Amino acid sequence: MLRVALLGLGGYAKRVAEAIKDCKRVKITGLISGTPDKLKSWGSLYGVPENSRYNYENFDRVGDNPDIDAVYIITPNALHKEQAIRVARAKKHVICEKPMALNAKEGEEMIAACKAAGVQLLVGYRLHFENKTTAIIRMRQEGEFGRIRFFQGLSGFKIGDPSQWRMQKKLAGGGALMDIGIYAVNGARYMVGEEPIWVTAQETKTDPERFKEGVDETIQFQLGFPGGAVASCLSTYNMSYLDRFFLNGEKGFAEMQPSTGYGPLKARTHKGELDIPHVTHQTLQMDGMAALLLDGKKPLVPVDGEEGLKDLKILDAIYAACASGKKQMLKL
Ligand code: NAD
């Protein structure tokens, strides 16, 4: 059994906690929150005893708790780095939500801290365990689509409440690109199956009043891959129904819409509809992470800190391309 403490008991943590109920090899054995009432109610709901409940000041003490193997960080993006380093120093494995950190420099610090502590660092890339996504990746690996020429990734939604942390640069680190555009970045890499070598990007704001300096609303970006494929992607906080991947090769195509939501996802290729049953992504993810941490069984697409860092390097390059108007070369 992988015994996990959840750090940050907000909206997504609730989804993860519910999904873990169906896991075969994962159990919630610790809770970390700044709200005593949440610790109490979640503690009784998930059977976590009082001595395994912590707040943001004292959670370094998880190091003394033999019932916790890993801590899953599910807080606003700007808190990930410091919290991950504290968890690593407590000698527990770190599972961190996406984006792993605010930029590549922070990501590198997290990787170094986990390495120094001898613990693993994983990123909550749930789609790397999702059945339709992995089926398409396998088809690409087996050559079903032929040489890959093009990927399109459209990731966005209309954001609500302007006071939420996602609309504050200090906590979010950016805007739509950090939050939802990262799915198109990550998806371009696992769908094409190569690491991009250049980035171009353009930012537009249809609502500059609402999206303040540093909180990007809409960014279009293009990635170039060594095999000649290009990706054309869009990330936005101001459009609806934008959750689509399209992969085009010389012998076939794959299309997913929705492609990254909580599912059920829908996928078809030149051979027809993919008829694969939906399983809650976070249940598959957490059992997959248990297999990785307990048995060393690697998922089809990595979910380690290096994988998170590659995405952060691309996000940095996209922002740099927007700011400079110039093509950015990448070394991943
Ligand atoms: P949320 O606002 O619902 O929850 C955030 C939690 O962090 C809250 O419980 C809040 O109290 C706590 N928190 C601690 N310190 C805080 C501070 N200084 N300011 C604000 N809140 C603070 O957000 P969420 O949707 O649960 O997102 C949390 C993380 O999970 C983000 O990194 C996000 O990108 C990620 N996420 C991932 C997925 C996915 O599908 N993998 C989906 C949603 C969110």
Q: What can you see in these coordinates?
A:
Helix 1 (11-20) packs across helix 8, helix 3 (80-89) packs parallel to helix 4 (104-117) and helix 4 (104-117) packs antiparallel against helix 9 (305-324). The protein folds into two domains: 2-123, Rossmann fold (3-Layer(aba) Sandwich); 130-276 and 303-329, Dihydrodipicolinate Reductase, domain 2, CATH 3.30.360.10. Helix content is 34%, strand content 23%. It starts with a strand and ends with a strand. The chain is built from nine helices and 15 strands. With 332 residues, the chain is an alpha/beta fold. Strand 4 (70-73), helix 3 (80-89) and strand 5 form a beta-alpha-beta unit. Strands 14-13-12-11-7-10-9-8-15 form a nine-stranded mixed beta sheet. The structure holds nicotinamide-adenine-dinucleotide (NAD). Belongs to the Gfo/Idh/MocA family. Residues 138-254 form the GFO/IDH/MocA-like oxidoreductase domain. Keywords: Oxidoreductase.
Main sheet strand line-up? 14-13-12-11-7-10-9-8-15
Count of folded domains: 2
**What CATH architecture label of the largest domain applies?**
2-Layer Sandwich
Query: What is the CATH level 1 assignment of the largest domain?
Result: Alpha Beta
Question: What is the overall silhouette?
Answer: globular
Number of separate helices: 9
Fraction of residues in β-strands: 15-25%
Order of helix and strand elements from N to C terminus: EHEHEEHEHEHEHHEEEEEEEHHE
Poorly predicted ranges (pLDDT <50, ≥5 residues)? Answer: none
Number of strands: 15
